């Protein structure tokens, strides 16, 4: 009964989404307030019914209702409760439901926090979001209903893919979807602005906190996914340039360009049509990401089901979204007045350069991800594009982005003198090259990549400190605390996020340069020396789990004579599908991880053990955390809220 | 400098830099494509010697053997028509099994042994790497054509 209620709620959500898509847009077009006012309650209704539907599916998992096909395929009575709940988004149908729920959540947030925006604009934003919801809900109802019954019902479920039975599964997909889907808000704002024909600084100011919030979620989601892959997949890599990772990385790159371009549009009124194009692009790539990950076209952990109808539907949807928005863009954008002019040496130019480069990187990732699929689809042969391509492209293109990132904030808007600007950054620049060379020599690994990475990171840190010092000097005379207090949150956000890039580069460079791997055959009581550590193999014991049987190894880790504790990597067999799984064990540290995973057992009773030494790998996640924190600070800047307070009395007067 | 010539310089620099970036991307792309071959194609000599490529197929029953060092593993990949011997160092993916689909990436030595640097297996019990399925399907197709 409850699954049927969930299905019915989904149908109702679809109907409400249709109303939300049509009525407010019509109202905005005809200038009828009553029609426009339908948007907010419709958004709320759509959220409630989608939420109810989601709760019904969750209940089916919790109650082990194996008469629902989706539950029977992805859960089991022995699956721990938390993974029965996360199994809701463990595969195609449920993750679409999560997508729809996330979209309705963002829509309600827009409806609630947009009281200070013009009604016609809000109506257009909600209408656009309504159309996206219509597309996704229709997709689910037509091709991917999670509530389909299995007749007769199964006695026992097949269990969730063991790779997904991990704490990472609880938080990674929801965060990632908040990011993906969050760009739909930036997209809807851009479409609403195109429909209004008013793309001005005010539009950029309204759009900025939303875009930054989505970007924060996406950053956190990608970082978490990377960390999860690192400890779960058992071979110690943190980024594989796997198409699924690329699918989330492309919108991130374009989203990063978008938040910078929005800054220029807000401050200077420039780059307007470019900003709109980026908003369309970032959301289109999010949709493409969903298509890539969830239609089964990829050889990947994430693509379980293969059903060409689904792929076709998303492809048609994608073409419709991109086509309609580009048509609208082509129709409206030429009417936009150009922004303010700026000189060659200016912050505007630096940001333009950053935008172009990020877009090129995004396009090159797209090329490497889609080209094999295209060739395959056209029957022209099978090939793959591996990590070497992405690395060969990424490093040379992102290096100038980082240079511009540290040079740009020292330049004034509109125009600046080149020589004084260069003189400002020169000392830190020279110092960082020396630091990069010095550290590379000290760790005994002098390659151009190591030196480049360390020098860039050093420059980010030095230039950030210099920027802070310059900012504090601006109000000479005031006390230090009041000077710190007057710096707006948005500035701190920028500063912290940029510093995060530096920390991230340190991590990537050190892991890439100094990591060490070793596969050894070990017997009980044997020792092995590895990267300055000693590991003592204490043998393997049986360790039964709730829905798996495991062989658990005990390895004692020593640094010299100091005992650093026991590492317990496991080899598990998940019982429902007899599927083997490797569970690595890590000794995590600020400056290095020691990572151990258990291979297979050999005929003579010894085991193959994979050892990994990962210097500074935590700095990669720390950098991402700083970037996300920076984004939170920037989105929470009082400026955006002050605007709301100032507008409110005026609106009240109008209403009266 | 006049505003117009300034803009020309700006646009010109932009175009040149953009062109350089595109050239970089395309040349990196050309150099790093990894082609895929079926075991039959490899036996027919269609795969390049000494260059990295991929082979997909089934792991032949009874072919997995460990060398005395315990680290080097040897097995054979087949599309049911032809068989390619493979050697690999390190631990194998969890789902690597005899009689199941797998894809190996590496290069072919003059001795006919494929030295794999990467071994990919399917991700769950129901799922076969598309390349492996493709190789077997091609071999069956070829066999069917021969019979006619």
From TrEMBL, chain A:
Cytochrome c-type biogenesis protein CcmF C-terminal domain mapped to chain residues: 315-638
Statement: the UniProt record of this protein carries the keyword tRNA-binding: no
Protein name: Cytochrome c-type biogenesis protein CcmF
Source species of the chain: Azoarcus indigens
Record family assignment: Belongs to the CcmF/CycK/Ccl1/NrfE/CcsA family.
Cytochrome c assembly protein domain location: 89-295
GO cellular component, one term: plasma membrane
TM stretches of this protein: 6-29, 41-62, 96-114, 121-142, 177-197, 209-229, 249-265, 274-292, 312-331, 352-374, 394-413, 425-444, 450-470, 491-514, 616-636
Pfam families: CcmF_C, Cytochrom_C_asm
A Gene Ontology biological process term: cytochrome complex assembly
Function: Required for the biogenesis of c-type cytochromes. Possible subunit of a heme lyase.
InterPro entries xref list: CcmF_C, Cyt_c_assembly, Cyt_c_biogenesis, Cyt_c_biogenesis_CcmF
Subcellular location: Cell inner membrane
KW Chloroplast (keyword) present: no
Main localisation: membrane
Lineage of the species this protein comes from: Bacteria, Pseudomonadati, Pseudomonadota, Betaproteobacteria, Rhodocyclales
Membrane disposition: Multi-pass membrane protein
Keywords: Cell inner membrane, Cell membrane, Cytochrome c-type biogenesis, Membrane, Transmembrane, Transmembrane helix
MF GO annotations: heme binding; heme transmembrane transporter activity
Automatic annotation (TrEMBL), chain B:
Compartments (UniProt record): Cell inner membrane; Cell membrane
Bilayer topology term: Single-pass type II membrane protein
UniProt-recorded name of the protein: Cytochrome c-type biogenesis protein CcmE
Binding site for heme: 123, 127
Major subcellular site: membrane
Cytoplasmic side: 1-7
Membership in a protein family: Belongs to the CcmE/CycJ family.
GO cellular component, one term: plasma membrane
InterPro entries assigned to the protein according to its UniProt record, in alphabetical order: CcmE, CcmE-like_sf, NA-bd_OB-fold
Keywords, comma-separated and alphabetical: Cell membrane, Cytochrome c-type biogenesis, Heme, Iron, Membrane, Metal-binding, Signal-anchor, Transmembrane, Transmembrane helix
Any one biological process term the GO annotation gives: cytochrome complex assembly
Membrane topology (Extracellular): 29-148
Name of the gene encoding the protein in the UniProt record: ccmE
PANTHER family (UniProt xref): CYTOCHROME C-TYPE BIOGENESIS PROTEIN CCME HOMOLOG, MITOCHONDRIAL (PTHR34128)
Role played: Heme chaperone required for the biogenesis of c-type cytochromes. Transiently binds heme delivered by CcmC and transfers the heme to apo-cytochromes in a process facilitated by CcmF and CcmH.
Record GO terms (molecular function): heme binding; metal ion binding
Organism in which the protein naturally occurs: Azoarcus indigens
The keyword Magnesium belongs to this UniProt entry's keyword annotation: no
Domain of life of the organism encoding this protein: Bacteria
Organism phylogeny: Bacteria, Pseudomonadati, Pseudomonadota, Betaproteobacteria, Rhodocyclales
Gene3D superfamilies with a match to the protein in the record: Nucleic acid-binding proteins
